[in-house]
Design a protein that fits this description.
Radius of gyration: 34 Å
Strand content: 15-25%
Order of helices and strands: EHEHEEEEEEHEEHEHEEEHHHEEHEE
Number of strands: 18
Helix content: 25-40%
Largest sheet: 5 strands, antiparallel
């Protein structure tokens, strides 16, 4: 399917290029707080929404993204919104048999083990007001409307928080910090202890006089004091406790390993590394990030969202005659200005689409070459180029498509 980038900017209105950054690209995204009941106001762009989903996946172990189709009267270019739901919306009490299928912690499976529905609460269980209005009832939402993002460590149906293996270490470190703080406060409170036989008669302080016999209650440099009554006073001398830094560093190493994050990134402590060692240590972390992107985030979130988007765009007429249409805005960076001028002048007329193919249909007509046709693919980026691989992909606002006639001359003709 050729993709046409329709370059629309303020030049259509006042002959000036568009330099504003959009709050959303082509799909309006919504991030609904857990306590919100009705309002769904866009609060972040699509990239910010991905960050929110990834953070929730790491913290809670899983996150739900629900497709919300909108009416044409809502004025959206593509009538689609994405609603991010915390995992608490899944009704974990729903377990057991249901017809020929089964329920596992709020997820309904058909007889062959395919997801059929997710049982969701209407309100967050922690929202006292919403729970008072609607109770803790749940209803099934078709699985085709939900993108359930979580890391599969085995064949489980729900996600596990990434910090679960070190949750005890986090508690122990917190207890240690509290105990150390209490110890310091206690040492600071006790200044001196008075020893003697007749403390009840003498009071808490011994009788200390100077050379003239006057009672001394304040100390000053060079003072020579005399203790009367056989009293003994000992001042508190807090001793420095060793091993605090070593224990805390070792605990944070354990915690960082549990979260699969390098210690230096978790704590910001670069005192134990140099440039070469930290760069070598980040190599494996970057490989892990790539694995999370390609094996988890893209198939579980990006692919369903792309499918929802194309379906909504087709229904809204944004895909015309088998060609995808993308609304392109130009960056406000100064180094992009010459490229924008080349696009306006027609020097750059084509676009290049970066994509990943998920499924091919392979056919081999009789007496012809084998044909591979991509029927399920996901685009990742659109680049303006001078010569594109697909001559049908270009800027619709600049030049219309035209037919190309090929004259094939075989041998002897």
């Amino acid at each position: 399917m050729p993709v046409i980038a329709r370059a629309t900017a303020d030049s259509d209105l006042n002959l000036r290029p568009c330099k504003s950054k959009p709050s959303f690209i082509t799909v309006t995204v919504c991030s609904t707080p857990s306590h919100s009941r009705t309002s769904r106001v866009p609060t972040t762009g699509f990239y910010g929404l991905q960050t929110l989903i990834c953070r929730e996946m790491v913290e809670a172990g899983e996150v739900l993204v629900r497709r919300r189709l909108r009416r044409a009267s809502d004025g959206l270019p593509v009538p689609l919104q994405l609603q991010v739901l915390e995992a608490d919306f899944l009704d974990a009490t729903k377990s057991g048999a249901i017809g020929a299928g089964r329920l596992v912690q709020g997820i309904e499976f058909d007889p062959v083990g395919k997801r059929r529905a997710h049982w969701l609460h209407a309100e967050h269980p922690g929202d006292a007001y919403g729970a008072l209005l609607n109770g803790l009832q749940s209803r099934p939402v078709p699985a085709t409307e939900i993108a359930h993002v979580y890391e599969k460590q085995r064949t489980q149906a729900r996600g596990v928080p990434w910090g679960a293996p070190v949750i005890r270490s986090l508690r122990d470190l917190d207890d240690y910090e509290v105990a150390e703080l209490v110890r310091k406060k206690t040492e600071a409170c006790v200044t001196a202890i008075v020893f003697g036989d007749d403390e009840a008669q003498q009071g808490i302080a011994p009788s200390v006089v100077d050379a003239d016999g006057n009672r001394v209650e304040q100390f000053e440099p060079g003072l020579i004091a005399y203790a009367r009554g056989g009293k003994d006073i000992r001042f508190n001398q807090p001793s420095a406790t060793g091993g605090y830094g070593e224990y805390k560093r070792a605990s944070l190493h354990t915690i960082s390993a549990g979260f699969r994050v390098p210690y230096e990134l978790l704590t910001g402590d670069l005192s134990q590394v140099n440039y070469s060692s930290i760069r070598a240590g980040l190599v494996e972390f970057r490989r892990q990030i790539d694995a999370v992107q390609w094996q988890l985030f893209i198939p579980m979130f990006c692919a369903p969202v792309w499918r929802w988007f194309t379906e909504a765009a087709w229904a809204a007429g944004q895909i015309e005659d088998g060609r995808g249409i993308a609304l392109v805005r130009i960056s406000e960076r100064a180094d992009v200005e010459p490229i924008w001028r080349d696009i306006q002048a027609g020097h750059i007329r084509a676009v290049s689409i970066g994509y990943q193919v998920h499924r091919f249909e392979v056919s081999k007509p009789e007496a012809a070459r084998e044909l591979w046709r991509a029927v399920d693919w996901t685009p990742f980026e659109v680049s303006a180029v001078a010569v594109g691989a697909d001559p049908a992909a270009g800027f619709r606002a600049q030049h219309p498509l035209h037919d190309c006639v090929l004259h094939r001359r075989d041998g002897g003709s």
